[in-house]
Structures are given as C-alpha cells and as structure tokens.
Design goal:
- A 4-stranded mixed sheet has the order 1-4-3-2. The chain has a 3-stranded antiparallel sheet with strand order 5-6-7, with helices on one face. Strands 10-11-14 form a 3-stranded mixed sheet, with no helix packed on it.
- The protein contains 15 helices and 16 strands.
- 33% of the residues lie in helices and 16% in strands.
- The protein is of the alpha+beta class.
- The longest helix is centred in the C-terminal third of the chain and has 14 residues, at 295-308.
- The structure holds zinc ion (2 copies).
- Residues 50, 58, 112-113, 119 line the site of one zinc ion.
Length: 374
C-alpha cells in the first residue's frame, strides 16, 4: 500500500476504516512519525474512518491519535453490533449524538459523499441542522463524493463556510482507485493540527480539487435502478418516481441539488476543480482495453511512472510531448483532452456509472466505454 501510494503521487493518505480492530493492528505496524502521522517508506498516513448513523447517513472522521481512535471505538461499541466486523460500523446514534462524540474526542468531522441518495446527508435530510442539530456549526468539512463537484455544492448557501474535499472514498482493494479523487493543499504542516487549522480557515487552504467529472458518478441523473432509463425531474415527479418497467426511479444528485438550491447567482469562490479519471482508465481507453487492470495497461502505466515520477505528475503536470515520447500519441492526446475538459460524458444514474469518451472518438465506440463498477 505504501509503495502504491508513492507511485500515485499522494503525500498523505487516509488509512480508512481505522475503527476496525484488525485494520488498526496493521496501522500499529507502521512507523510513527508523530501522534497523528504514520508512515511506510515515503508514504504518510493519517487516521480516518467512516461511521453510519441510524438515519443511514455516512460521516467521515479524522483522528488526532491512535489513543483517540481507541477511545471513540470503546464509546461507539456500546451502540453498534458490527463494529468488530464492518470497516464502516453502523451505530444506533443520531448524527447530532455522533457529532458530539466526535467533538469530545477531538476529531475532525463532516458528512461523507454528502449528496448520494442512499446513505448520505442530503439523501436523508434537507439541511445540516436537520442532520446535526446544535452541532451543525461544528462540522469541519464536506466530502463532495463522486457524483458532485464544488459547483454543485455552491448552490446550497449553508455549505459556503465549509472546506470542500474531493476524496476517493476507495474502500475497495483495487489500487488504481486510490487517488481517483484528491485534494491539493497548501498545508502549514503535514499533521492533524495542520489539517485542523486549514478546516478552521486559520492557516493553509485547499488550492485545487481533482476528481471525476460529476456526470460520471453513478447517481448523477435521476434514473430507474432496474433498467437505468433516465428521466428529467419533472417527468419523474409526474410518474410518481416509477419507471415504465415498474422499477423505482432514483433521484439523481443533480436534481436533488436543484431541489435544495437557494442560490440564484452569487457563487462561492472555490479552488479550481480539475476533472480527471485514473491514469489506468485513460490508458485502457486509449489502447482499447475494457479493463484497466490488464497486463498491457499495467506495463504502460509502470513505464510512465518510472520515467516521470508519479501518477499525479503524469495526469496534471508532465509536458504532453514527454508523455507521447514514452507511450505514443494516443495516450498523450487523451490526457490533453482531460486536462482541457474536452471530453464527452454520458451521465450516470440509477446506480450505474456514466461513461466518458473523448470528443473526437467515433460514436460507435461509445457503447463499449465505461468506467467499470466503482
Ligand atoms: Zn460511505
Ligand atoms: Zn426501469
């Protein structure tokens, strides 16, 4: 995991699932840089975990130390039947009660993938107050999730004081999904305290968000979760959220945000948002492979990383001519398209991811292009 993180170009990676006792044993085997930062080789980790409350909302916690993880684990275990078996425990507490515990433990705390329809803040509530009650002012950040970017969140004014995070939410074992979204931060120090000061707007800032185009997310538009037919909001309402096939129409993030939007013109000034997909996905598209994990895709990925340093460098910074010299012009041109936002997207919905193809690509290939099941 450490080596993979370095090749991705990630300076600081969330451990994920740190409340889980077995995963915590793995964390304890890392080198301890400070109370809050652990390392393996060059790769540094900070303690993070997700918790589901009884209203089916997922929350992200960042911990100041392993002893604080242990402390919250003990408190939460009284309200959870799966804390020892599930990486993301479910607790019989409200968002307000969990926010208080997080505050008392000294954690950084905020809603995870805030807009997704099933297990998120705005999937189940209309406001921060509805979810967090009197602790709604103690929320430190908002995780945008894969189906939204800052321009979506800006439409809801109560979010304007929060730092927006574009995180990967990569619980799966596939390394190529690490850093499918990331944040470029100007941090006063690489530590829990550094992050805390950033979230409190005291020192440091997020200078860039990078992530999937929101249309790529699997809940972007309203669509049937059985047959994936897409519907406009008006059509879905007229049909009482029932598809002609009989299946339920799941309200998309885009429509949900329009429903909640209270901003007509004044937008918040947010860092630039660069829309990208993982390098292995780009390579797979360029060479015409349906999977991003084939031997050939891996070999090309390795050759780029060996020559240019890491994945973030290749995707965001390296001169395109250098990329073309190493792996040819098809991959170089595709990376250019992504950097310039010159891609055509068929939006996702109903639980199925969208598909992305470069504008110049022949339409007949469109049906074969898909980001897979994540
Ligand atoms: Zn979650
Ligand atoms: Zn249907």
């Amino acid at each position: 995991m450490g080596v993979q993180g370095e090749k991705k170009g990630i300076d600081l990676l969330g451990t994920g699932d740190c409340l889980h006792p077995c995963w915590r044993k793995n964390i304890e085997e890392l080198d301890e840089e400070s109370e809050s930062i652990f390392s393996k080789g060059e790769m540094k980790f900070i303690l993070t975990g997700e918790v589901e409350t009884k209203d089916r909302v997922h929350h992200l916690l960042i911990f100041p130390s392993l002893s604080k993880v242990e402390e919250l684990y003990v408190r939460l275990s009284h309200f959870s039947s799966n804390i020892d078996s599930d990486g993301r425990p479910r607790v019989e507490l409200s968002g307000e009660e969990l926010a208080l515990m997080a505050k008392e433990t000294g954690c950084l705390f905020g809603p995870a993938h805030a807009f997704t329809p099933y297990t998120a803040l705005y999937g189940n509530h209309d406001s921060l107050f509805s979810a967090y009650g009197k602790y709604s002012k103690d929320i430190h950040f908002l995780e945008l999730g894969l189906s939204a970017d800052s321009s979506y969140a800006n439409k809801i004014s109560e979010l304007h004081d929060l730092v927006y995070l574009s995180n990967s939410d990569a619980h799966s074992p596939f390394p190529y999904r690490l850093a499918r979204e990331f944040n470029t931060m100007d941090l006063h120090e690489l530590s829990f305290e550094g992050l805390k000061k950033l979230f409190q707007h005291k020192k440091g800032e997020v200078v860039r968000n990078v992530g999937l185009p929101p249309e790529e997310g699997k809940y972007n538009e309203s669509a049937c979760s059985s047959c994936y037919t897409h519907y406009s909001f008006e059509e879905a309402v007229a049909r009482d959220w029932r598809c002609s096939c009989g299946g339920p129409i799941k309200k998309g993030v885009k429509d949900r945000i329009e429903e909640l939007s209270d901003i007509s013109k004044s937008a918040k000034d947010t860092p630039p948002y660069l829309h990208l997909i993982p390098l292995q996905e780009i390579i797979a598209k360029a060479v015409g492979h349906s999977s991003p994990t084939t031997k050939k895709v891996n070999e090309i990925w390795e050759s780029l990383i060996d020559s240019l340093g890491d994945e973030v460098e290749v995707l965001c910074e390296s001169p395109i001519e250098e990329i073309k010299e190493i792996v040819g012009s098809d991959i170089g041109d595709l990376i250019t398209d992504f950097r310039k936002g010159n891609v055509e997207i068929r939006p996702g919905g109903g639980g199925r991811y969208g598909s992305i193809l470069p504008k110049k690509e022949n339409k007949s290939k469109a049906g074969q292009s898909s980001l897979g099941d994540f």
